[in-house]
Automatic annotation (TrEMBL):
Pfam short name (any one): Zn_Ribbon_YjdM
Protein name: Protein YjdM
Domain Protein YjdM C-terminal: start-end pairs: 46-112
SUPFAM superfamilies listed in its UniProt record: Prokaryotic SH3-related domain, Zinc beta-ribbon
PANTHER family linked to this entry: PROTEIN YJDM, PROTEIN YJDM-RELATED
Ranges for domain Protein YjdM N-terminal: 4-32
Tree of life domain: Bacteria
Family: Belongs to the YjdM family.
Length: 113
């Protein structure tokens, strides 16, 4: 019998390998065998337009002109945004921009500095 670990979510002993992942047939939970899946929390990884992983407190720049809803002005390409905060939702970056105030941005329109 193989030495596969029990499922971290439901503790089932019937786990199996599927490519690079381990799978539980009882609860359908999938995880990487070398990761610490014991807590069962799957953190969402947010990446910028170039594929770099973003973290809270990073500084990013806007890669294209963005129209600001409710305003006649636009956010220009190259605008530097400091100290971002990552949030859940469609617009996954919460920040304050000098001259505009508090805003939410999509990570696909920024690149990490």
């Amino acid at each position: 019998m193989s030495n596969l670990p029990n499922c971290p979510k439901c503790n089932s002993e019937y786990t199996y390998e599927d490519g690079a992942l381990l799978v539980c047939p009882e609860c359908s939970h999938e995880w990487e065998p070398n990761s610490d899946g014991a807590n069962g929390d799957d953190e969402k990884v947010i990446k910028d337009a170039n594929g770099n992983v973003l973290n809270d407190g990073d500084t990013v720049t806007v890669i294209k002109d963005l129209k600001v809803k409710g305003s006649s002005s636009t956010l220009k390409q190259g605008t530097k945004v400091k100290n971002i905060r990552l949030v859940d939702g469609d617009h996954d970056i919460d920040c304050k921009i000098d001259g505009f105030g508090a805003m939410k941005l999509k990570s696909e329109f920024v690149k990490k500095i």
